[in-house]
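Input chain follows. Return structure tokens only.
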Amino acid sequence: MIALDKTLGHRKAELLSYFRSRAAESLEEIKRTYGTAKLNEQATAINRAISGTRSTLIKALTQNAAREHWHNQEILQCTLMITYVSYVVMLESRNEVWPYDFMAFSRRVGELWEPFCKLCFEFPLSDATLFIPPLFLEVKQKLTNEIDIYIEQLPLAKEQQVELKGYYDKVWGLVTSGEIQLELDLHFVSEDHKYVVDFKSGFGSNEKGNTNRLLLVATAYKILEEGYRCLLLVRAEEDKNNHYFQTLKHSGLWEAYCGGEAYTRIKEFSGFDLQWWIKNSVNWQADLQPAMIQHIELNKLEQYLIW
């Protein structure tokens, strides 16, 4: 039984033992259920099991913290440690049932880094407050109403006004031929400014579609009167990213930051020095099991564990 007190954020070894024991129990059941052939199903099941263990532990911790009136920093430090340890065991366990290749590992690290950073905004040490992003349908309706009012004020015959609105609708038809999601990874208010944030582990050769989506989404936010600021925070240092990152950085739509600069922005807005915490608490080489480290080195995956 793990004691859910304020020291949990410093009890990494105990948490590693707990998560590995839970993972071992889950793996036995998963292998009985799916056999040895269904690797994808096994991988999904073990990831889900460890995520469930993490969620249960964090929920119990936050309930205890609320009862004892902990400070957000105390909750955050414990939650970060629980989350990091769960990532260690999740990577080990998934690799045991289905060894990672280059693409799967890089994608997985990106999936883990984003929610890890967001924890700083779930338990902020600043005035940062989360908000629900607008729907694109709301944005479209607002702009449509504005253009209708403008067209009706033009010195044109009624037929011409109708025709002009028809052309406007055709343009909307092109823009909305695919679904446009204005929801990004994080949305928060700080000092009366609204920020929308997209986290990226890094930019590779397959980012063209995502880059175009981000440009479109940022454009939608920029034309709203609320004065949204769009932040792009990237784990990899700038020289490790390709031209797609540069496209976004120089677009005039995104405020883009890489590596240490990304952590500086997280500290600026959340009040917590996540880079300092990582430096003092995260040690993949020491915390991952030797077989996992050997696999990472053999497949040259070390760059994805530079957090």
